[in-house]
Design brief:
The protein is of the alpha/beta class. It contains nine helices and five strands; from the N terminus they run E-H-E-H-H-H-E-H-H-E-H-H-E-H. The radius of gyration is 18 Å and the shape is globular. The chain binds 3'-deoxy-3'-aminothymidine monophosphate (NYM) and magnesium ion. Magnesium ion binds next to loops.
Length: about 230
């Protein structure tokens, strides 16, 4: 088989600059494609879009979690095919967002449940990382994952903040903790944390590209496509 393209994931909090950096990185490769999750253009993506933009839409946390994963499976074959055709695929969010946001919901509702003025049920599955990763097992695993992190104070000043479900400062603080807890940076050298505090777009682009080159994900590879596993 001829060499394949590589799968590069950019993760981060809402408004961390992921989308900007994902587009810039995609443009660095002559044969590349940017895929954004959730992909709101698919059947399942349209339900997710309603859920995110209309706060009156009710879904159990388990159902929402499974829909986000199902949305990734909708693109599974396309991702594999494009990689095999030599495309570099840049992902703007993927499996770690899936786990971190659901886990954060669990932590958030647990806090509120301790507050006697709020009655809330806490669903144990949503706090269980093994349950959360389950539906994503077997999806193509990124060759490189970059997690863009910055201080929450800087985040809340950014444009467009606060329009969708989840975009609350208190919630984002928990999301950040969840990401840092679940990303296996110690044991998996395909995952890197990128501190973007006090850096402009060009500086972050350079930081990202340096890592991409250092990890050798800037060129086609003979390595088989990896799969998400525990
Ligand atoms: N999100 C995204 C999840 O809760 N689970 C997932 O699996 C993914 C991929 O969707 N606040 C959440 C995180 C975001 C929201 O994403 C919309 P974006 O990148 O703002 O369109
Ligand atoms: Mg967002």
């Amino acid at each position: 088989m001829s060499p394949r393209g590589q799968l590069i994931l950019i993760e981060g909090l809402d408004r961390s600059g992921k989308s900007t950096q994902s587009s810039i990185l995609t443009a660095k490769f002559s044969k590349s494609k940017l895929l954004k999750f959730p992909d709101r253009t698919t059947k399942i993506g349209s339900i997710i879009n309603e859920y995110l933009t209309d706060k009156s839409v009710q879904l159990s946390d388990q159902s929402a979690h499974l829909l986000f994963s199902a949305n990734r499976w909708e693109l599974n074959n396309e991702i594999i095919q494009l990689l095999n055709e030599g495309y570099f695929i840049i992902l703007d969010r993927y499996i770690y967002s899936g786990i971190a946001y659901s886990l954060a919901k669990y932590e958030f509702s647990k806090r509120n449940a301790n507050d006697s003025t709020v009655t809330s049920t806490v669903d144990e599955q949503i706090g269980d990382v093994n349950w959360l990763i389950g539906p994503d097992l077997g999806l193509p695993k990124p060759d490189l994952t970059l997690f863009l992190t910055l201080d929450l104070a800087e985040l809340s000043n950014r444009k467009g903040w606060g329009e969708e479900r989840y975009e609350l400062q208190e919630f984002q603080t928990i999301v950040k903790k969840s990401f840092l807890r679940i990303l296996p940076t110690d044991t998996d050298d395909s995952i890197e944390i990128v501190d973007v505090n006090n850096k402009n777009i060009e500086q972050v682009t350079k930081l990202i590209w340096d890592i991409v080159e250092k990890k050798g994900v800037n060129a086609l590879t003979e390595n088989p496509i990896k799969k998400v596993s525990i």
